[in-house]
Amino acid sequence: MKRRNRLVQILLFIVTFGMYGIYWFYATSKEMVEYKRLAGSPILWTILLFIPFGSFFSCWKHGKAIVEVTDSKYPFFLIYVLWLLFNPAVWLLTRIELNKLAEE
User: Fold this and answer.
1) How many CA atoms, within 13 angstroms, populate the side-chain half-sphere of residue 39?
2) 42: Cβ–Cβ under 8 A, 6 or more apart, which residues?
3) What pLDDT digit, counting tens, does each position of 66-102 carry?
4) At what angle do helices 76-85 and 87-103 cross, to 10 degrees?
5) 83 with 17: CB under 8 angstroms?
6) Which of 61, 71, 102, 104 could form a disulfide with 1 if both were Cys (CB 3.0 to 4.6 A apart)?
7) What is the number of other CB atoms lying within 10 angstroms of the CB of residue 80?
8) How much is the pLDDT for 103?
């Protein structure tokens, strides 16, 4: 896991007009898949973000990966609903949990 500074990430989101978010989604998906040896393709999940209704599947898979990495610390339903309604909350939660793993 790579430790990332939240302030730097916020600045990158702003400076790149949100394009960093695409990279962030791919990078965190890849880290979680490799860390827990999960089935799935982070590249496919990222591509599906741009396809109508495909983004629901991408958020589903990313949410499942978060649940696996955190050993079910958060209920999947909560993460998935946050993805759909207020995704900055998922970004923050994911970043906090991945930074904890990076420090171990």
Assistant:
1) 0
2) 26, 29, 30, 33
3) 999 999 999 999 999 999 999 899 999 999 999 998 8
4) 130
5) no
6) 102
7) 19
8) 86
Q: Are 101 and 80 in contact (CB under 8 A)?
A: no
Alpha helices by DSSP H, listed for the chain, are 6-15, 19-36, 42-48, 54-69, 76-85, 87-103
- The answer for residues whose C-beta is within 8 angstroms of residue 102's C-beta and 6 or more apart is 1, 2, 3
Interatomic CA distance for residues 51 and 1, integer angstroms: 28
Global model pTM greater than 0.85? yes
Q: Are the C-beta atoms of 44 and 32 separated by less than 8 Å?
A: no
Q: DSSP string of 47-62?
A: HHTTSTTHHHHHHHHH
Please answer whether residues 80 and 55 qualify as being in contact, where contact means their C-beta atoms are separated by less than 8 angstroms.
Answer: no
- Provide the 10 A C-beta neighbour count for residue 36: 11
Rg of the chain (C-alpha set): 13
